[in-house]
Amino acid sequence: MTGGTPEDRHEILTKLHADHLDALQEIGNIGAGHSATALSQLLNRRVDMSVPRAAICSIEEFSTKILSDPEEPLVAVISETSGDVAMHLVGLFDLASINRLMWIIRKQKVEDNLMEISTIDRSFICEIGSILLLHYVSAITEFTDLLMFPQVPSIAIDMGKAILDSILLLNAVDYNTVLSIEVDIFTDNVQLNSTMVMLPDRHTLNRIMSQLFSEGWAQE
Amino acid sequence: VSTEHITAGIGEIRIGKSPKVLQAIALGSCVGIALYDPQPKLGGLSHAMLPLEKETRKHSYSPGKFVDSAILLMIHKLVKKGAKPNRFVSKLVGGARMFEIKNLDIGTRNVQSARAALKNAAIPIVAEDVGKDFGRTVHFYLSTGKLLIRKAGGSRRHWREL
């Protein structure tokens, strides 16, 4: 081995320049835009979204970047995609937003303790998360012309950090850094807040970048 | 009286001596391995992410990330501080299955890997709170060797002793 840690050499994440990150943010923008539209139709009210953030950070930093309290209960709906593009997509909701959502759609409040939520509410929330994720995926498929097959989504309600760290594990076998593209979706008076996080693996990132930048992107 | 809490972040190993308290916050599929030598009241806590070091294709030096290498390194660190391997006892926490996605059941494998590595090192596992589908926070009291564990939600004061 010569100079630097092996992780630094030929590392795709170190090849990403501002232009590349812009393109990835645009993907997040398009994906979340479709999710926001779906949510807006579902709730019949105005839904806004933040400017997407594409960022590279260490595995340790990832959860602290998203969460203010690592132990605060969160709802996460996660979908894994296969095909040309293999990645994890995560929709995150806090308790207040889940309650608001249930109120708008079912005129019902969930338990104050998220951990004691009923099975029906649980699968109901998973379904809503699923709708958002699927719209996200189909938008990216259209934009990049890459095939993505989303798997059946799964829901977890637990300490935010325990959820996020567990999602990163698959990428973490070979690397200590991760690329995430995050967008916040919220209703006009911020009573409903969701963060959509896209976590492409290295191979997928390469596929996306060569698709978007054909000549300007040297394959690994 | 507040005691100093030392956090083992994801992929980290922390060691210390009584009366210090080691902690790992929000373990999901990650596993917390507590090693303790009751004589000098020396202990270590590892917050490991993945089962086996050999599964990585990269050779970046991050032994704390993998259960097997983390246990070996933690033993080494404690022995250097004066602990005796034949007095070690261990406890395992975490290794949950957070999602019903098949590929994501690393928690179970983490726990199996920890049991195997500890068996190899001839260190008895005296207690476990592992598996199931929820995250855990653990505090490791080096004055007594006891662990306090809590789950998400409910009252923050609800601790279980292990």
Number of domains of chain A: 1
User: Which stretches of chain A are poorly predicted, pLDDT < 50 over at least 5 residues?
Assistant: 1-9
What is the CATH class name of chain A?
Alpha Beta
Q: Assess the beta-strand content of chain A as a share of residues.
A: 25-35%
The rough form of chain B would be described as: globular
Quote the CATH topology of chain A.
Answer: Chemotaxis protein chec
- Number of contiguous helices of chain B: 2
Specify the structural class of chain B: alpha+beta
What is the subunit arrangement here? heterodimer
Provide the β-strand percentage band of chain B.
Answer: 25-35%
Number of strands of chain B: 10
Q: Using the CA coordinates, give the radius of gyration of chain B.
A: 15 Å
Give descriptors for this structure.
heterodimer, A: alpha+beta, Chemotaxis protein chec, 8 strands, 44% helix, B: alpha+beta, five-stranded mixed beta sheet, 10 strands, globular
In short, what is this structure?
Chain A has 220 residues and is an alpha+beta fold.
Description:
The complex is a heterodimer of chains A (220) and B (162). With 220 residues, chain A is of the alpha+beta class. Chain A has a single domain, classed as 3-Layer(aba) Sandwich (Chemotaxis protein chec). Helix content of chain A is 44%, strand content 25%. Chain A is built from six helices and eight strands; from the N terminus they run αββαββααββαββα. In chain A, strands 1, 2, 3, 4, 5, 6, 7 and 8 form an eight-stranded antiparallel sheet that branches. Chain A is globular, with a radius of gyration of 18 Å. The two termini of chain A are 19 Å apart. By secondary structure, chain B is α+β, with helices and mostly antiparallel strands. Helix content of chain B is 18%, strand content 34%. Chain B contains two helices and ten strands; from the N terminus they run βββββαβαββββ. Chain B has helices spanning 67-80, 106-120, and strands at 5-7, 13-17, 21-27, 31-37, 42-48, 89-94, 125-130, 136-141, 146-151, 160-161. A five-stranded mixed sheet of chain B has the order 1-3-8-9-10, with no helix packed on it. In chain B, α2 links the parallel β6 (89-94) and β7 (125-130). Chain B is globular. The model of chain B has no long low-confidence stretch (mean pLDDT 91). Chains A and B meet through α2, β3, β6 and α5 of A and β3 of B.
